[in-house]
């Protein structure tokens, strides 16, 4: 019986397992590896960081979706792959795990672009633990304010006003009343500052929509500092320049959060795969070009959009669609000894950015959506992806039919 090893129980990995369990029952043995016993919706991490969602609301046990007749789940750290020998080294197992086919879906890590002090002095937000750490850090700063009266304890700087930074700022705005109670101040005393190098934000949207998003964030009282190129992070201080040759300026804050960029898992480089920022340019079967039995999905993959010079942006949406393709292709290979006739292709259903619980903006199925309607669309999109991986059971258990919890 063929052995499929799936690395990462994120959107890409877990959905691949769920589909293979249905399509190849009796014909395959699956091993799924993740460092955590739970799957989490990375698209909601900003809400955990702000404290507007609990970690349990955005995660569920991997075991809930495992069919023990076919799949073994190993909770361990993936160290590296040897794609030529077709095996995977795990941190706590002496013998490497061998495979016939491997699906690599280890997701993203924070990218600091070598900016001095960013790793040491800014908080990343790429997994549940980091999101909880951010929330705990904010609360500690607010509690400290009661005795210190240091205004920096009330300041939160988010580095990077991309999609993630904007969504985080929106969630922090929603949390401002609670934050103010903790510190014993007025909500308007809590300062939320976004520092961003670009002057034209949100390149995934047209000018009109991007302007709408920017104005929305500003109207909510977020201090949006654009055209500020971050040059370093010191403890409690973000250094930046308003132009290459400009003098260095700084903004101080008790909480500094890093959402400037992400790269693919470092396991990609450790495994000797050819990649740029941890992303492998896959072929149209989503395989590593040199290793046809290795599928690379989600944030560790780069797939070129036809006629474009850049790969598609990494999103949960494309990770899920890559899982669909991989399950079809593996089923054809294992059942019929041939490849799925069509190569992989992708059509985005749109992108919607939330700004707090009741506002959002973006495009859905080719149409612009804004405000409350936008937030409704965003919640429907999030429910769809929860449903695609976790099924009705997880959707119900998370109470997500109540959209405005
Ligand atoms: C705040 C935020 C908002 C976002 N909003 C959207 C959105 O609105 N729409 C959208 O489409 N996308 C959004 N994204 C992007 C989206 O979350 C990612 O593109 C998506 O999570 C990638 O899925 P994946 O399956 O490749 O990896 P992940 O979801 O990151 O899963 C990777 C899995 O691998 C495991 N893992 C990693 N390394 C190891 C290791 N060495 N050993 C063992 N296990 C390991 C992790 O525990 C995790 O379970 C957002 C991201 C963030 C941070």
Instruction: List cofactors, ions and other ligands.
Output: flavin-adenine dinucleotide
Structural class: alpha/beta
CATH class of the largest domain: Alpha Beta
| Count of all domains | 3
Question: How would you characterize the overall build of this protein?
Answer:
With 405 residues, the protein is of the alpha/beta class. It has three domains: 2-110 and 263-347, 3-Layer(bba) Sandwich (FAD/NAD(P)-binding domain), CATH 3.50.50.100; 118-260, FAD/NAD(P)-binding domain (3-Layer(bba) Sandwich), CATH 3.50.50; 349-405, no CATH class. It has helices spanning 11-23, 45-50, 118-121, 128-148, 163-183, 207-219, 267-270, 316-336, 371-397, and strands at 2-7, 28-34, 38-40, 59-61, 71-75, 78-82, 87-90, 97-98, 101-104, 108-110, 123-124, 155-159, 191-195, 223-225, 229-234, 237-241, 248-252, 255-258, 262-264, 280-281, 287-288, 291-296, 301-302, 350-354, 360-364, 367-370. A hairpin with a 2-residue loop joins strand 25 (360-364) and strand 26. The chain is globular. Bound molecules: flavin-adenine dinucleotide. Flavin-adenine dinucleotide (FAD) is lined by residues 8-13, 33-36, 42-43, 45-46, 77-78, 105-108, 164, 167, 265, 267, 298-299, 314-317, 319.
Quick summary:
By secondary structure, this protein is α/β, with parallel strands linked by helices. 32% of the residues lie in helices and 26% in strands.
What are the main properties of this structure?
single chain; 405 residues; FAD/NAD(P)-binding domain; five-stranded parallel beta sheet; globular
């Amino acid at each position: 019986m063929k052995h499929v090893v799936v690395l990462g129980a994120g959107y890409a990995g877990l959905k691949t397992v769920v589909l293979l369990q249905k399509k190849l029952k009796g014909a395959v043995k699956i091993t799924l590896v993740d460092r955590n016993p739970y799957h989490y919706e990375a698209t909601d991490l900003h809400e955990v960081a702000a404290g507007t969602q609990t970690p349990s609301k955005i995660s569920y046990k991997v075991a809930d979706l495992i069919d023990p007749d076919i799949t073994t789940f190993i909770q361990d750290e993936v160290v590296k792959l040897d794609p030529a020998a077709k095996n995977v080294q795990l941190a706590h197992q002496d013998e490497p795990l061998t495979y016939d086919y491997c699906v690599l879906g280890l997701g993203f890590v924070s990218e600091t672009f070598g900016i001095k002090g960013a790793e040491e002095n800014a908080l990343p937000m790429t997994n549940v633990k980091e999101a909880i750490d951010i929330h705990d850090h904010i609360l500690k700063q607010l509690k400290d304010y009661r005795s210190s009266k240091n205004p920096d304890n009330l300041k939160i700087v988010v580095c990077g006003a991309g999609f993630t930074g904007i969504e985080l700022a929106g969630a922090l705005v929603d949390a401002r009343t609670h934050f103010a109670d903790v510190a014993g101040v007025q909500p308007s005393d809590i300062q939320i500052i976004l520092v961003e190098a670009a002057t034209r934000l949100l390149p995934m949207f047209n000018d009109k929509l991007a302007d709408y998003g920017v104005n929305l964030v500003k109207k909510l009282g977020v201090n949006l500092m654009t055209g500020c190129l971050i040059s370093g992070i010191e403890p409690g201080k973000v250094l930046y320049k308003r132009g290459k040759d400009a003098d260095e300026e700084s903004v101080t804050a008790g909480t500094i959060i890093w959402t400037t960029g992400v790269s693919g898992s470092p396991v990609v480089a450790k495994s000797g795969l050819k990649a740029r920022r941890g992303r492998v340019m896959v072929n149209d079967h989503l395989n590593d070009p040199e290793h046809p039995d290795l599928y690379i999905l989600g944030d560790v993959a780069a797939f070129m959009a036809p006629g474009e010079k850049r790969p598609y942006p990494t999103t949960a949406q494309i990770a899920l669609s890559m899982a669909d393709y991989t399950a079809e292709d593996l089923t054809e290979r294992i059942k019929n000894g041939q490849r799925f006739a069509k190569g992989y292709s992708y059509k985005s259903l749109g992108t919607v950015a939330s700004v707090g619980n009741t506002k959002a903006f973006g495009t859905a199925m080719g149409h612009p959506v804004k405000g409350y309607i936008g937030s409704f669309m965003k919640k429907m999109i999030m429910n769809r992806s929860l449903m695609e991986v976790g099924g009705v059971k997880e959707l119900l258990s998370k109470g997500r039919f109540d959209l405005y919890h």
